[in-house]
């Protein structure tokens, strides 16, 4: 996998973890309840493990990113495409 | 005052005091006389230590007191702390490894060091450093507020009118903290963080299992709370209509959705601009330590969410306190056996010591590198830098203490609110700088100044039922009558706009952009690459 493809996947993986918690409208309700918790509260608790799984996947993906390399090699972050 | 609770508390406090001093010998380098050692713990912390250290940074005693307090007081917006700590980790995952890499290759200790190297601009670096110090000071002061609340509930301290006599226990606790931070540097909070988190986890797990069981389950707690809030709103309908009271609710109304989201996003972006979180990140051994931690740290968010709900539990348990910040300590006092209440008090107070130590170290690093070395003694040796930082860490803590005790507590809380607004204004220079050199240094400085001024002005204009200025973090969105938004995010938007427009202008006018001393591959360098130092301790001789 090329490094830019890998970084695209990383960003796609991480995007829901950043965007979902900010969209209050999608979880702003009481029902269904779970163990007495209104939906509003348990959904936000649920987002924590979801975000952790996504971040862990992204970590595992980047971990294989680099065998030892030399300085001359091209960088692997999306930044270099921005520059 | 309960003898058993106080005894347990004092025992645990003494335990961490011993640990704090012993930390100077932990993972010891041959030469402690440099900022890399004192201020970054040798830059060699692995995943395990970093998890505790960064966790200790983010989840402070004030968080433990203030977040449940907002829920206790009937504002569901306070629960934004949970989405905030969800959003922050993907951002850390993406941005901070690049800062780690460039800092390790160039020996940067602070974010302002990086800005100086990247933009060749001492004024811009000074702006970043001063903002960092200004934003950190009230944060330290608030850790004291957290400790003070616990000590009050415990009944330690006399009723004397003299502020020094009254708060003598707080004074002693802080003096002890200052002494071991001075001698052990970042190693002290790193070691104490283990104790802190073990205690906090223990207390919270017991609290969220035991208390709901006693109070008829979570369903009953939520029902009691919403009924109580409904009654309050009916009784105070006139005052609410007149704007003299705030309606209570267990969920934010639709007009506050944007406020909730923007508070979460703005705080997440601001968090890793704070010098103390950057200090935590730069003390790690490699890029993957940061990434691995970004996927492990959410465990704390769960803890924080449960802790926040203790505000509701306190209502259901019939805790009545005038100062909502006392709700959770009072809940422990009422519901737990004395010895376990002592453990819980100790958990919160030790929870204040860890971040206070890291924050004072971070502020001292900024002073030393970006003010002392940049403007006062340009040829400072490593030993002089370390000595300077140690003394400044004492001054910073002493300043925070006098601040809280002699001046007003509300003043510290207002400043902390402003600190969040201010620190976000350094984001364009730092984060954009990690990716691109497109922004012009003078444009960034102008954007920063505009963002600082606009944010402060907005915050000044916010009135609350109890305060006529600095009454809260929210303002009405421009061109809207009902929708509110977090001040920091608005100011940040204007900051960015100014920076972009002026960059276009300055580039067109060919104003010198300075020399960039970093190179593209500096941003991806990892442990083991050329020019990235291996772990400095325990056996490797410091530089």
What is the CATH topology classification name of chain B?
Sodium/glucose cotransporter
Considering DSSP H and I runs of 4 or more, what fraction of the residues of chain A is helical?
55-70%
How would a crystallographer describe the biggest sheet of chain A?
A: none
Helix content class of chain B: over 70%
Q: How many extended strands of chain A?
A: 0
N-to-C SSE series of chain A?
HHH
SS field, number of helical segments of chain A? 3
Which assembly state applies to the chains in this document?
Answer: heterodimer
Task: Give the tally of structural domains of chain B.
Answer: 1
Indicate the structural class of chain A: mainly alpha
Low-confidence stretches of chain B: 534-543
What's the number of extended β-strand segments of chain B? 2
The outline of chain A comes out as elongated
Separation, N- and C-terminal Cα atoms of chain A: 22 Å
CATH classification class of chain B: Mainly Alpha
If you had to describe this structure to a student in words, what would you say it looks like?
- The complex is a heterodimer of chains A (83) and B (543).
- By secondary structure, chain A is mainly alpha-helical.
- Chain A has one domain (3-65).
- Helix content of chain A is 55%, strand content 0%.
- Chain A has helices spanning 3-19, 39-63, 79-82.
- Residues 67-83 of chain A have low confidence and may be disordered.
- Chain B is built from 23 helices and 2 strands.
- Helices cover 70% and strands 1% of the residues of chain B.
- Chain B has helices at residues 3-22, 35-38, 47-58, 61-72, 81-106, 111-119, 122-154, 163-166, 168-184, 187-214, 217-235, 237-241, 257-271, 275-282, 287-296, 298-316, 327-335, 338-376, 382-406, 409-424, 427-435, 441-460, 487-508; strands at residues 474-476, 484-486.
- In chain B, strands 1-2 form a two-stranded antiparallel ribbon.
- Residues 534-543 of chain B have low confidence and may be disordered.
- Chain B is mostly helical and 543 residues long.
- In chain B, helix 9 (168-184) packs antiparallel against helix 19 (382-406).
- Chain B has a single domain (3-23, 49-511), classed as Sodium/glucose cotransporter, CATH 1.20.1730.10.
- The interface between A and B is large, with 44 and 50 residues.
